[in-house]
Predict the 3D structure of the following.
Amino acid sequence: MAKKKDKEVTEEVKEKKKKKKVKKVDIAQNFLYCILGLMLGLFALMGMCIASPEFSNMIVDLATSVKNAPEPEIIVKVEEPEGEEGEGEEGEKLASAEGEGADSEEGSGVTVETAEENEVKSTEAAASPQEIKPIVTITDPSQVVIADETSSEEASEPIVVPTEFTGKSDYVDLEPDIVDIDSKEQAEQITRQTGYGNTGDGLSFDAAFYPYYNMLDEKSKALYRQVYANAMDLNAAFKPVEQMGMLDIENVISSVAYDHPELFWLDTTFYTEYDFSGTAIKLELTFYERLGDIQSARLEFDAAAEVVVSAAATLPTTIEKEAFVHNYLADKLTYKHNSLDQSAYSGIVDNYTVCAGYAKSFQYLMQRLGVPTYLCVGRGANELHAWNVINLDGAYYNVDCTWDDQDPVIYDFFNVNDDDNYYHTRMFQSVNLPHCIN
């Protein structure tokens, strides 16, 4: 009986050992499957980066943003041990984890920092040269507009706008398009045939009149000068002097469009061609086809603008000059869509335009009169909208000629501060224009 019992125990032990062996094999297999899955995922990611430069740029931008993100604050609560004296009072200290061993119990690299030191570190991270960060030079930093920090519930609720202002917000932002050149031979041919054109070396743009240029870093300023110079020369296609991501290229071209309403032939679409390695080998702007001969259109544009500028220049004060231009556009223009309605040409030469045409026309005419005036882009009446910010003797004001164009002309949005600029919210680079606080 005892032998039979011993035999049963022996069989049971063998069975348990067998199960353990099987379990170990399963764990090993699962581990190998995980390694294989990670390798396949990495190969797939590399393939997508090679096939799509846009995806590659997105990955680089994401990695950069993660790298440059300000280090999180860790609240370390220090409690006085029971039964000991002279160890200090219970309190809270701000600490920042440094190094890969920040989470380990020993040698974690956790250092105690003051709130001021942490703020400096965050500021240094935000100013990384890997990203375009606005450097506003037209005013002191305390006047830079900060985006509204509204709650998600408030932001999701539509703004109720009076009927006289609805249907008058039709700004169209840039529409970039990426063209991938998969053939190495074709890419090399495009590279040989495409030059830099006019690089704009030696050009400078006064911060008082061209704020968006002065919001860029040096690398982006170089591309800005090249885009402006080639657009002025009516040279639509050229090789970019600087390599950067698609979002940064779009930011540069929109900055040129914001600063220069005189480039009225620039359409809202542009193309960037990338080769198989993700290098931007060609940048192509588009010009409005309806204009036909652009040189003739420029003469017509200049002549029409000169009539208004000459009349306004006879007035004794800046505010009278401004009111003259404001009322001239309101009396002359009718809000109506057309193929040039995003251009200053539609407001100065033609008689029909939308908010973009009003704002760019006002900007151009006031700058011709020597008054710093900027295009401001954002949200109005719950849609993309354009208006102006004007500098009158060092004080900044909002002006919306579009919404003031009523019958009769009103002045609800003529030289108002941000608090009184009802239903307008700045967006994109325009958040960095001077705050209208007067």
Observations:
- The chain has a mean pLDDT of 78.
- The chain has twelve helices and 14 strands.
